[in-house]
Write a structure and sequence with these properties.
mainly alpha; 16 helices; 85% helix; 2 domains
């Protein structure tokens, strides 16, 4: 009876995975398809100068979100993974994390505002237009902060269907609003088209999350201390990644032309389609890795399985983009038709970064966070070396530079994971 039970159990487990991946994959394929179409419409309907401003604004938005988080979501996920079955205790974790994020958001806004306004003005925006663009970012910024926390209980409980449905409704809402650009082709309108549906989706997401977490709980001082412990280790790196994560756009915005900014932004929109991969892994895989017991052999096995799957999928994605580069660029429009090599380089950099981010996520969700005194100097050294070797005044040179930097980061993150795994394993053996 035992072999039969194991085989039957294995089939049920495989069937569960097929359903989860099928649901997430099919929904995400639809969501990313809608998002890609929305992005293409934005590229086609916005003049090159306006699209450059739109690219800069979204770059700063990413910086603002990273600063306002600074590792809070990682800390909340790590704490939530310990108590995910208990509604009240999970609620305390989430409420505490949300309280911290709101406080960090104020500082992020104050820091990012002058930088954004300066860059927008530098690339031709009047001051009144720069202010409008900044104000348009606020709904998207606040929604990104709260939405990431609202998703955590659903991911921990693997309640995928309502999460995917909510994301789909958000994508459809944005797609519908994008058509307003045909009448009002301005960057701030395009930003609002993304921010407003996200804010509405967050309201629904909050209601769904109450199934697993009690949001009436109070801030817990002990949980707050542990989350801040993660933040203290991650914040220096987060501040650094605010710059390095978007270094290619910052470099081209300083040393290149407004047209170059629009070009790298347009190529980045195609690479956004690769978020289908990161979303599936972020929804189904990484939360399960965070829930694993301290079984070191199992941890290492799962790590190799996950990174191997990422590598295979990303390789297929880059090859597909290379094979379809001509029709892809035709879709973007005549202004971007001669960027075939740049398109492949952009996709390659995004895929390497995706794998590196996966390794980092798995490490941090085990509370294995590299000391910034090591990670930042190594990363800065890579940036300096890349800037010296490559011509960062051209789009091609900036993309080559980006590949070099993310490759160094992948090697660094992987090396640290193995170091901490081995250290933890040796301690376990000595007990």
């Amino acid at each position: 009876m035992k072999p039969f039970f194991n085989e039957n159990f294995g089939k049920r487990k495989l069937g569960t995975w097929i359903r989860l991946v099928g649901l997430t994959g099919s929904t995400q394929f639809l969501i990313q398809g809608i998002g890609l179409l929305s992005g293409i419409l934005v590229i086609r309907w916005l003049p090159t100068e306006e699209y450059a401003l739109y690219t800069l604004a979204n770059t700063i938005l990413g910086t603002m979100v990273v600063l306002a988080d600074s590792g809070i979501a990682t800390g909340v996920t790590a704490e939530g993974g310990k108590v995910w079955k208990e509604k009240s205790r999970l609620g305390s974790v989430l409420v505490t994390g949300m309280n911290l994020r709101k406080k960090f958001a104020v500082g992020s806004l104050l820091l990012a505002a002058p930088i954004l306004l300066y860059l927008l003005n530098f690339h031709g925006a009047d001051w009144w237009m720069a202010i409008l663009i900044f104000l348009a970012l606020i709904p998207a910024f606040m929604s990104a902060l709260t939405g990431a926390i609202f998703m955590i209980p659903l991911k921990l409980h693997q309640d995928i269907k309502p999460l995917q449905k909510n994301l789909l409704m958000e994508s459809l809402g944005r797609f519908g609003l994008i058509f307003s650009l045909a009448i009002f082709p301005f960057s701030f309108v395009a930003i609002l088209c993304a921010g407003i549906p996200r804010a509405i989706a967050n309201i629904r997401l909050y209601k769904i999350s109450t199934k697993f977490a009690d949001w009436r709980e109070s801030v817990d001082a002990a949980i707050r201390k542990r989350i801040l412990g993660v933040v203290k280790r991650l914040m220096p790196g987060a501040i650094y990644y605010c710059i390095s994560g978007q270094i290619s756009i910052y470099l081209i915005s300083i040393f290149g032309s407004t047209t170059n900014v629009a070009e790298i932004g347009a190529l980045g929109r195609i690479s956004v389609a690769l978020t289908l991969i990161s979303t599936i892994f972020g929804t189904l895989i990484y939360p399960r890795f965070a829930r694993l017991e301290e079984d070191h052999k199992l941890l290492l096995k799962r790590f190799f399985q996950i990174t191997s799957a990422l590598f295979i999928v990303c390789t297929i994605a880059v090859l597909a983009i290379w094979a379809l580069s001509t029709p892809i660029l035709w879709v973007l429009g005549d202004a971007y038709s001669d960027l075939g090599v740049e398109l492949v380089l952009s996709a390659t950099a995004s895929c390497i970064g995706l794998i590196s981010g996966g390794v980092f996520t798995m490490s941090s969700q085990r509370s294995w966070v590299m000391n910034p005194a090591l990670s930042i100097p190594v990363s800065i050294g890579a940036i300096v070396a890349g800037a010296v070797i490559m011509d960062v005044t051209t789009l091609l040179g900036v993309l080559q530079f980006n590949i070099f930097v993310v490759t160094v980061q992948l090697l660094l993150n992987s090396g640290y994971f193995f170091f901490r795994w081995n250290k933890s394993y040796q301690l376990k053996l000595n007990e």
